Amino acid sequence: MNYSFALIISVSLLATLIIHCAANASLVQDTCKKISQKSPDVNYDFCVAAFESDPTSKTASLQQLAFISLKLGTSNATALIPRIKSLLTESKFDAYAKQCLRDCLELYSDAIDSLKDAVEDFKEGDLAKANADISAAMDGADTCESQFTEKQGEVSPLTKENGDFTQLAAISLAFTAKFP
């Protein structure tokens, strides 16, 4: 009889866990659907994949997803720093491209600081300031990309990275309108 009771409890706990995980998967999907419909900078599949790359999103609330999105953007920008430094050592880039890369390095360093500020802004409930900080970070990626096009024939080696960061920043930016 104790075995039956333990089995019933175990099955009940498992069912509760499955329902909770399914509900959170739905929260990520619903959130990404709304964000991608409102923001031309965000692809739905990219948004879902980004959140799914962080295991804590499986049990996160909407507000926690906002913080996760900022963490993802900060991690992405942080990972770009060594990538840009590596590109600067390559001889295939001319002086103009190397100056653009140095600018990108500074822009992404600033973006990291802006996103860290945005985390504090969210914690303090200052969504307008969070919006401004995230927008500044997003502008950095846009500037990094567009400066390469100022010289005819120049191609940015960071197009994909700039696009990914822009999407992550746009996801975070959408959360500034989500909370009262």
UniProtKB/TrEMBL annotation:
SUPFAM superfamilies from the UniProt entry: Plant invertase/pectin methylesterase inhibitor
InterPro entries from the UniProt entry: Invertase/methylesterase_inhib, Pectinesterase_inhib_dom, Pla_a_1-like
Pfam families in UniProt: PMEI
Superkingdom of the source species: Eukaryota
Annotated signal sequence range: 1-23
MF terms in GO: enzyme inhibitor activity
Similarity remark: Belongs to the PMEI family.
NCBIfam families in UniProt: PME_inhib
This protein's name: Pectinesterase inhibitor domain-containing protein
